[in-house]
Every structure is written in C-alpha cells, then in structure tokens.
Give the backbone structure.
Amino acid sequence: MAVPSLRFGDSARLGYNDDGIYVNPMITPEQEDSILSRAYVPEHLVGLMVAISKGTPFLMEDHVGYDKDDWLIFVGYPLDRSFSLERCERVVGKLIEASRHERFWYIGPQVPAILLKSCAERESDEYYTLDLDKVTVSGSLRGAAEKAGRVLAVERTRTFRKEDEELASELLEREPLPPRVRELYRAMPRYVAESPSAWVLNGWDEKGRLSAFYVVDLEAKHFVTYVVGAHSKKHYVPHASDRLFLEMIRLAQESGKNTIHLGLGVNQGIRRFKRKWGGIPFLRYEFCEFAGGGGGTISLVRALLNRL
C-alpha cells in the first residue's frame, strides 16, 4: 500500500501510517525522561533542541527527530546505541517518502546511501568528550586557570545578562562568523530564559567588567553539554576561558555527572583547546542536508551543532 503524505506536527496523523511506521510527534514526559536517560549526543536533548529550533520533537523506531513547517531534522544516532546502516537506510527512506517536508536534515555516524547523491551540503567531523573519571588535568594548566581565578570573580547564573549580550556582540564584530553562527549567539537570551537546565558561567574582572562567559546545559542525565562561549579582547584576562572550563568541570561534578560533551572538533584551534583539557574524539559525525538550501531556523540549529 502506498505511504500517505503526513506532517509530523499534525495531531490528526498520530498513530501508525499505512507503512507500519509509528509516529508520535508529541512525546510524553515519560518518553522525554527515557530519551534524556539514554542520550549520548547533544541532539538527543529535547529541551535544548526545541528551545533553539522551535521544532516539535518526535520518536521513530528509537530515533529522535524534530520538525517544523517545511523542515525536518532526523538524528541518526539510535537511543539504544546499536547503529545499523541497514536500519538507518530503512527508516530514513520511509521517513522521506512519508513526509512532505521540503528540507530534510540528517546527522549520524554514517550517511545513508539514499541521501548520498542528493546532499546539497555535507560535513564530516568528530564529537569530543571529556571523561572526568579518567582525565588528569596537568598542574601547569590547573595553575594557569587558578591564577586567572585570582583576578576573575566567577559567577554561575540562570540569566544571560546585558553584559553577556554585549560580549557576544563584541565577538560578532571581531570574528567573521557565518550568519547561522551569529544567529545562534543572538538566540542565547531567549534560550537561556526558556531553558530550566541552562547555566551561564561568567568571569568578571577586578573592575566588574565581563571578561568571558560559557553557556552550558545540564539536561542530559549522564553528561553536561557545552553550548557556546566567548572571551573579551577589550577586557582581556589571560586564561579566562581556562578558568571557566575548570568551573564547568566543577559544575559537572557537583551535578553528579562524570562526562562533559564538548561537541565537534570544528577546526584545529578548537580541537587543540579541547585536547589540552583531556577531550578525546568520541563518535563520528556526518551531516547531510537533503533537497534544497537551509532556511533560518534549520541553519540556527546547524549553528548550535557546529559550536558544540
């Protein structure tokens, strides 16, 4: 029987479609708890992804996805951690056939063959994580971070302050960042305000000026996620970012979590910083955008993932 067209945000479509796929776009609190207890990549974090993308989360055959209007994001990392290219090919194929979304955005450890020839844009990278039970921070690095701490007043807050916005603006004026990354930084006030699991780590210099900030998320049960960060050139304090990294470690430990998800390698400088603190490659990341260019919302999500 032919697969009917469906929209994942349409409550009239709940249940099984004619091809036997169960689609539940409005996940229950119990399902969300299950997702967060089994999450192992940032894209599994329902609150984080919804706050950034404004999409509706759904579950399909132990995979998480998000959809809104004419786009759909499919996370190809199954919650049971048993990735099978054959299963991924089958689920993605049925999902594309069943939906009417104009843009399909896939991430996973491998790109299904059904998408390979039609990728409008493709990226390859690696996720980095920090295992707090195994890592040993060198004395010199810890000393540099602690020395910065004698200058900085470190604050943990649930608010993205006016000074954070100004520092983000300084970064955007200084660095030639892609438009989608710029949009991500501009989204931080709304994201932090809406997220019950987001924390802002601020480093204030001796004159009360903001020298650096991190935004981290504690939504996942077993790890902390680094979201974005910035340091000031106008109010520069040496090793301010290292001091906030050390604070992020302490926050993770106090939260009973032994892993920090550091996101993608992105470039040599970011990889070097993550490796300096003991971050190691954790999982292969493949991205494919199918059927056309990206719009504002989906590009914003891409910005998030590129900064993680």
Summary: The CA atoms of residues 95 and 284 lie 23 Å apart. The mean pLDDT is 85. Residues 179-194 form the longest helix (16 residues).
